[in-house]
Specification:
Low-confidence stretches: 1-31
Number of domains: 3
Radius of gyration: 29 Å
Largest sheet: 7 strands, mixed
Structural class: alpha+beta
Number of helices: 10
CATH superfamily of the largest domain: Periplasmic binding protein-like II
Helix content: 25-40%
CATH class of the largest domain: Alpha Beta
Strand content: 25-35%
Shape: elongated
Mean pLDDT: 86
Length: about 350
């Protein structure tokens, strides 16, 4: 073989070795790339970006850090998160509910959060409550990326078949606002989510929301990754880390969040003028300890939140003037002061059936 050919063969072999080494370095670099984890605000589990972590976010951070794997948490719209996770092997997202259509596309971790989804309504729209057999011909609201099962899914199927309007919202806060202003009649949401979001965004209106008795379904939520070998490996590592932290007593299992069990906020009442007191006055206790006073229109509806002591306890005298002018705490359901908690004299309160 000519010397030139030998020299060329050696150069080619050396070049091939260099390429192999470079290729190996690239492969290692790709392996060490941070896994991108998408999420978004989901109170009370995930607070908005820039605010202190909610319990759910702290939990996920611990699991990821315990995996000894680099990761990057990014806040993105949930729709974009799902789209990106399906397309990219190095991406995961949480929290998501497991349903058959998603199981075909994604690997799911063990449950991270657990809550109950209920059908919520506005007591201003339905002051006498709303029962399970009264859900026909109502405008339904739903969240864009939510998946429902059981009785709630059947309610949507029936509405769709009967061409009853269903309105879709991108975010929980938008859907809750629609429920409060009467744009929709019923909204299925996890109880902890609607309570936490309403308390944060619409604190004066929390007592307006109630749920239909007898309709609820478990709502476990998971970390998910694409149904690829990389996605499967990530979820397996995530679950292993999760299990080790539970065994060590660092985590106790799925977070349930705080949920109000008592949804009976009190009697519905009508506020009426009284002889000698032609104007109904509502007193607002302000944060500085001072009081502000509002004139309340005749016939305004309210929820009784806390009766005065003179109503609840017996008196040693039949002279009831003090009982008449004592104040009961109510939540205004309609009119110009809707959503305000005011103290109103007992003489103005008529309990409705």
């Amino acid at each position: 073989m000519p010397i030139g050919s030998l020299r060329n063969s050696g150069l080619l072999a050396f070049a091939a070795l260099c390429l192999a080494l470079v290729g190996g370095q690239d492969t290692q670099a790709q392996t060490d790339e941070a896994t991108v984890i998408y999420t978004d605000t989901y109170r009370p589990f995930i607070e908005p970006e820039g605010e202190p972590d909610g319990d759910g976010m702290r939990m996920v951070r611990l699991i990821l850090e315990n995996m000894d794997q680099s990761f990057e948490l990014r806040y993105r719209d949930f729709g974009f998160a799902l789209y990106s996770t399906q397309r990219s092997p190095g991406v995961a997202t949480f929290p998501w509910r497991k349903v058959p259509a998603r199981e075909a596309l994604f690997h799911f971790s063990e449950p991270l959060f657990e809550t109950q989804t209920r059908l919520h309504f506005n007591r201003q729209t339905f002051p006498n409550g709303l029962a399970a057999d009264q859900l026909t011909d109502l405008t339904l609201g739903q969240l864009e990326d939510y998946a429902y099962t059981g009785a709630i899914a059947r309610l949507f199927d029936t509405a769709d078949a009967n061409r009853i309007e269903i309105r879709t919202y991108a975010r929980e806060v938008e859907a809750i606002r629609a429920l409060l202003v009467g744009e929709i009649d019923v909204l299925p949401l996890p109880s902890t989510v609607i309570e936490a979001t309403t308390m944060t965004q619409f604190p004066n209106h929390i007592e307006l929301l109630d749920s239909v008795a007898g309709i609820s379904e478990p709502f476990p939520l998971h970390m998910i990754a694409a149904k690829t070998p990389e996605g499967e490996a990530f979820i397996n590592a995530f679950d292993t880390s999760y299990a080790r932290l539970r065994e060590a007593g660092v985590l106790s299992g799925p977070i349930t969040g705080s949920e109000s069990v008592d949804t009976d906020f009190g009697e519905t009442a009508e506020l009426l003028a009284s002889e000698g007191f032609p104007v109904i006055v509502g007193r607002l206790e302000q944060a500085d300890g001072e009081s502000a006073y509002y004139a309340i229109p005749q016939g305004t509806r309210a929820l009784v939140l806390e009766w005065s002591d003179t109503i609840l306890t017996a008196s040693r005298s039949d002279r009831i003037f003090k009982t008449m002018v004592d104040e009961t705490r109510v939540l205004i359901l309609n009119g110009p002061h809707v959503g305000k908690e005011l103290f109103v004299k007992n003489m103005h309160i008529t309990v409705l059936e």
